[in-house]
Write a structure and sequence with these properties.
The structure holds two protein chains of two kinds.
Chain A: E1 2-6, H1 8-11, H2 18-34, E2 39-45, H3 52-58, E3 68-71, H4 85-100, E4 106-109, E5 131-136, H5 140-143, H6 145-148, H7 152-166, E6 170-173, H8 176-186, E7 193-195, H9 213-221, E8 227-231, H10 240-248, H11 252-257, E9 259-263, H12 268-280, E10 288-292, H13 296-305, E11 308-311, H14 320-327, E12 332-335, H15 340-344, E13 350-351, H16 356-368, H17 370-384, H18 389-405, E14 420-425, E15 441-446, H19 457-464, E16 467-472, H20 479-486, E17 489-493, H21 506-517, H22 519-523, E18 539-543, H23 552-566, H24 568-581, H25 589-602, E19 609-614, H26 616-620, H27 626-640, E20 646-654, E21 657-660, H28 662-668, E22 688-691, H29 696-711, E23 715-720, H30 724-727, H31 734-750, E24 753-756, H32 759-770, E25 783-786, H33 805-813, E26 816-820, H34 829-841, E27 847-851, H35 859-867, E28 875-878, H36 883-892, E29 895-898, H37 907-914, E30 919-922, H38 925-931, E31 936-938, H39 943-956, H40 969-984
Parallel strand pairs in A: 1-2, 1-4, 2-3, 4-5, 5-6, 6-7, 8-9, 8-11, 9-10, 11-12, 12-13, 14-15, 14-16, 16-17, 17-18, 19-20, 19-22, 22-23, 23-24, 24-25, 26-27, 26-29, 27-28, 29-30, 30-31
Antiparallel strand pairs in A: 20-21
Chain B: H1 2-13, H2 16-27, H3 30-44, H4 59-71
Classes of the chains: A alpha/beta, B mainly alpha.
């Protein structure tokens, strides 16, 4: 069975009340129980995003991305505002459509009576498919309409909600009293309301160590004496004023011995009423303590340490506080009304809440007789054990399964007469088509050349059509295809027709090819696909006439009816018809756009899975950094050879909105940029986001959107190239450090998986994450994987003329040590220069050649290089060397020197090895990982030590070790793709955190 | 001042030597440097907007919009 559990009861304002706690606890217990036996989906209202992340975290692991349904809705739909009426009605229709699109066997609303003060949206009509089930908390407002339903708007709203609830196939009542009340008031058959009860969270238990707890608890809340406790709401029916009066009637000696402690968030109006009650009872302010809201942990202590818990409510759907108090070991007394006898379970512990003296009498009995208090504690502990969430979940599941096994609700009666079939054709009609008149009222029209305006006659006719059938060619971009997109229908393919398919221009053909096959289609000659049954094409399905079919009209009608009954597109069309005839005329353009966006998002994902590859930085400005080289290389490989069943879509954040970076992608592939548009991104729940580019400057801006995508089920992946600004903070400018730290925190909190370019970086990242307190979006740290960057398999081609002549002469005279990389502190150029100067002092002759741009925080180094006496004799700095010059230098050098203090990968070392140039490298884990035994490693940390190592190497000239096998970009991109794909498939790779 | 930063940055982009010299001078005053970078960042990167409006609809929503409009009586 597919069960969709609507979680709005725990998302909306009710999350602060018992309804929110009930919804969440039951959902957790139900998922643990039914998750294995049934396909359970948690539905969330995407508009109520405030509490959703915490809710998803609480429901993990059951609410993983494949069991989460984020339903888009509209803002400003609270029933409280008369101006919201049209939006709310539209939102309800959209919500119902989204639930219908799930084709669930059961849709279970955690709380139906929501949406008066917030944007919760509960449809007022049952879903078209499957059973509608709702949790029934109470109908207390109907008992006291003056108190709860005084305003006509509240009354109308509540009545509509109760009516909607009465249409449910099954109501799960939280107590027998609620069930009996509902049966009597709603006139429902007994089998449609089942009591499932409520549970108490295991956190509510008597603390194991009570020593000194009472003292600490009293101190924490400003309580000076042993106390009588109340916890709960402050509606008049809660009768807190009655409790104060009853407490005031206790003998003065008892009042001096015990304070009254009242727990709960209290507004100013109830507070003034309670103050009046205290004045009336002549109670001094010090005798009653109002704690305000108390978190659960502190509440347990308050329960456990009280001398008596009193719950004088005159009406309760269940009454969770006395149950929690009993579970924590408090002696509990309460009202003998509504559901409370079921909860308290001991007649001698109950009183008439309207009789103040009875309350006083019972309080006095317990406070004056320790044996009576002890007996109540023992009873409470026994009674509380009867109420557990797993037991509630079990009863709910049994009730749902039993209801589902009964005959389904009869379908709504069909409209009298035959449905109207509208047939539009651009090729001759088959002869058998007229036989469809046995099944439909038919209207047949040749396809007009232009799309009619909304008021045109044909549009008016099409609005009345129950079914639409197209006959003709529907190749992408054709006239028929354009009609079908706006007026979805089934297609009768013009097979056997001699009419040639209509001509299509180059751009339309390219766009169609791209739409059906992605970028790879633009490089080959892939013909545009015929319209397949996808939501955007508007094609419900394609009929092809079978010449052997004896009754083609009957077969056609059967197929049409099947598609119109079950196709998501048909559901959408039906919903659009209802909306167009109803509320949409009252909506402004933006609200209309939101309705359309929500409807589009409600369609089940179709087509290949997509990887949205973020190229925001490089698409805006490619400045040729090492990271951008990685982005270009990996993306190009992915576009040319996408991972299996995956469509690659580069995206970029532009002016606060993500757009497809199609112009950039086309440019990368050497194709004409105008072929495709950079349209706005519409995500699907099975998309994957890959933060391939280093997006430190834009991620903060894009974070709200990425969080929303993540909530909606999009996998989040980021590539981490290094942690150098954190591990070598002195080597970076404070702004760069802050920018990097902000970026890293964001990617860690957002990601499902982080991909490091080396194992060493992955280890560093894991250490940093374990030592840092990070607010992960769904409470779970991402896994970490690593892959190696690719190396271009080029053959070194050296042009000796490219070498500057002083350098050529110097290289011919003495050994040359080469350093390649931007001049920045962590590359340790100054250390290398110090070491080489010491060699020169010791009469060891060698050149030092530095190739690299002017970087940051290296002003001293630049001054030394520019004013050095050995400049252009034995010391060379080439700030702007081109590729040919670098090739020539590699050929002329004796060894590559890599004294860097930290690296993410170390591409120059691999390039040197490709030139068969020996490498003298600092003994860093990343160099060991990437280069294996090829380099000669040193561990010196000062200039003398490095000079010693260099002198030794120059004297011995050891042969390099065996070079490690380095992947090319195709393998590197494939390795990254493999690690990205594994998350969606639920496969494990080595996970560090 | 704030509005001048982005055009100034673009102008400097074509003059790398001058840009480098200016950058090095500003580097010596970390507070000024962070302030200028912060302003540039805020100028050039508008925050992502999760709200949907008529001007920023993706293709699937535009298709639905066309279908809905075709079904609506003239407004």
């Amino acid at each position: 069975m597919k069960i969709v559990l609507d979680m709005q009861g725990a998302q909306c304002q009710s999350r602060h009340r018992g309804i929110g706690r009930y919804s969440l606890e039951l959902a957790k217990a139900f998922a643990a129980l039914a998750g294995q036996r049934h396909d359970l989906q948690f539905a969330f209202n995407a508009q109520l995003d405030e509490a959703t992340d915490a809710l998803i975290a609480a429901l993990q692991p059951q609410a993983d991305r494949s069991h989460r349904l984020m339903i888009k809705s509209l803002p400003r739909v609270a029933a409280q505002g008369a101006e919201n009426t049209a939006r709310r009605q539209a939102a309800e229709q959209v919500m119902r459509l989204a639930l219908d699109q799930q084709h669930a066997d059961v849709v279970w609303y955690s709380s139906m009576i929501e949406g008066y003060v917030d944007d919760a949206v509960i449809p007022e009509l049952p879903v078209r498919r499957g059973l509608s089930v709702a949790t029934l908390y109470d109908l207390i407002p109907l008992h006291d309409p003056d108190a709860y339903l005084g305003h006509p708007r509240v009354r109308a709203w509540y009545d509509a909600k109760v009516k909607a609830m009465a249409q449910c196939d099954l109501l799960l009542a939280i107590s027998d009293w609620v069930r009996d009340d509902a049966l009597a008031r709603l006139q429902l058959p007994a089998e449609r309301v089942v009591t499932v009860g409520a549970g108490v969270d295991p956190r509510f238990a008597r603390p194991a160590d009570m020593r000194g707890l009472a003292e600490r608890t009293r101190q924490a809340h400003g309580i000076h004496r042993p106390y009588v406790l109340y916890n709960g709401g402050f509606d008049p029916r809660k009768n807190v004023a009655g409790l104060i009066a009853a407490y005031g009637a206790l003998p003065p000696s008892l009042r001096e011995q015990y304070q009254l402690v009242i727990v709960g968030r209290i507004g100013t109006e109830p507070m003034s009423l309670l103050s009046a009650a205290m004045r009336e009872a002549r109670l001094p302010a010090s005798s009653v303590v109002f704690t305000g809201y108390v978190p659960d942990g502190a509440l347990v202590n308050l329960y456990a340490c009280c001398e008596l818990f009193v719950f004088p409510s005159s009406m309760e759907g269940f009454g969770l506080p006395p149950l929690e108090a009993m579970a924590c070991g408090a002696p509990v007394i309460g009202s003998r009304t509504t559901s409370l006898p079921e909860v308290i379970g001991e007649p001698s512990a109950m009183f008439d809440p309207s009789d103040r003296d009875a309350i006083t009498r019972m309080m006095r009995e317990v406070l004056e007789q320790p044996a009576r208090a002890q007996a109540l504690r023992a009873h409470g502990a026994r009674q509380a054990r009867k109420f557990s969430w797993p037991a509630v979940a079990e009863r709910a599941l049994l009730a749902i399964e039993a209801r589902a096994s009964q005959p389904a609700r009869p379908p709504a009666p069909a409209a009298p007469g035959k449905p109207l079939l509208y047939c539009l054709h651009d090729t001759p009609l088959p002869a058998w088509l007229k036989d469809l008149e046995q099944h439909y009222r038919m209207e047949v029209t040749a396809l007009p050349t232009a799309m009619p305006e909304a008021g045109a006659t044909l549009s008016a006719r099409l609005r009345t059509a129950d079914r639409i059938l197209y006959v003709g060619h529907a190749a992408g971009g054709s006239r028929l295809s354009a009609w079908m997109q706006v007026w979805p229908g089934a297609l009768l393919a013009a097979a056997g027709s001699n009419a040639p398919p209509p001509p299509i221009d180059r751009i339309t053909r390219s766009r169609s090819a791209y739409a059906s096959h992605g970028y790879a289609a633009l490089l080959g000659d892939v013909p545009p696909a015929c319209d397949s049954p996808t939501p955007d094409s508007g094609c419900l399905g394609t009929l092809v006439t079978d010449p052997a079919e004896p009754e083609p009209a009957a077969a056609c009608a059967r197929q049409l009816e099947a598609w119109y009954a079950a196709s998501p597109l048909a559901d959408q069309t039906r919903a659009l018809d209802e909306l167009a005839q109803g509320v949409t005329a009252s909506l402004d353009e933006d609200d209309l756009a939101r309705v359309c966006d929500a409807i589009a998002a409600s369609m089940p994902p179709s087509g290949p899975r997509r990887w949205l590859v973020d190229v925001t930085q490089i698409a805006r400005h490619d400045i040729g950094t090492g990271v951008q080289r990685v982005v270009r290389s990996v993306l190009r490989q992915w576009l040319l050879q996408p991972p299996r069943d995956v469509r690659i879509e580069p995206v970029a954040l532009v002016d606060g909105h993500y757009r497809y970076a199609r112009h950039y992608a086309l440019g990368l592939l050497g194709l004409e940029a105008g072929l495709l548009d950079d349209d706005f991104v519409s995500i699907r729940a099975n998309d994957t986001y890959v933060g391939l580019d280093w997006s430190a400057e834009t991620l903060a801006a894009g974070e709200p959107l990425l969080r929303e995508w993540h909530r909606a089920g999009v996998d989040m992946h980021f590539v981490v190239h290094d942690l150098l600004p954190l591990t070598l903070p002195d080597a970076f400018h404070p702004f760069a450090r802050e920018l990097f730290a902000g970026w890293l925190r964001r990617v860690c909190t957002l990601a499902d998986r982080l991909h490091c370019v080396s194992r060493a970086t992955a280890d560093e990242l894991a250490r940093w994450m374990t030592s840092t307190d990070l607010p992960y979006q769904f409470g779970q740290a991402p896994s970490i994987a690593s892959f190696h960057l690719g190396v271009e398999p080029t053959t070194p081609r050296t042009d000796p003329a490219a070498l500057p002549s002083p350098l050529a002469q110097a290289a011919a005279q003495r050994p040359t040590l080469l350093m390649v990389g931007t001049l920045e502190p962590r590359k340790a150029h100054e250390l290398a220069l110090d070491a080489v100067e010491r060699l020169w002092t010791r009469q060891i002759d060698a050149n030092l050649v530095i190739v690299g741009h002017h970087g940051w925080l290296v002003e001293n180094l630049i001054r030394r290089l520019e004013g050095h006496t050995e400049r252009d004799r034995r010391l060379f700095w080439l700030a702007d060397a081109d590729d040919a010059t670098l090739e020539a230098i590699y050929a002329a050098a004796t060894a590559l020197l890599a004294p860097s203090l930290g690296e993410g990968f170390g591409l120059p070392l691999i390039e040197a090895a490709h030139h068969q140039l020996p490498v003298i490298a600092r003994d860093l884990p990343v160099f060991r990982e990437i280069m294996g035994d090829y380099p000669h490693y040193f561990r010196a940390t000062d200039a003398d030590g490095l000079a010693q190592s260099l002198a030794q190497w120059l004297a011995e000239r050891p042969q390099p070790g065996a070079p490690a096998p380095w992947p090319d970009w195709a393998r590197s991109a494939a390795a990254l793709a493999g690690a990205v794909g594994q998350v969606r498939q639920g496969e494990g790779v080595q996970t560090i955190v | 001042m704030k509005r001048l930063l982005t055009p100034l940055r673009r102008w400097l982009a074509a003059r790398p030597r001058l840009r480098r010299q200016l950058t090095l001078i500003v580097y010596r005053f970390p507070a000024l440097d962070m302030r200028l970078r912060g302003l540039l960042h805020a100028n050039e990167r508008s925050s992502a907007d999760c709200r949907v409006d008529a001007a920023h609809l993706g293709a699937p929503a535009r298709v639905v919009q066309a279908r809905l409009r075709a079904r609506m009586p003239s407004r």
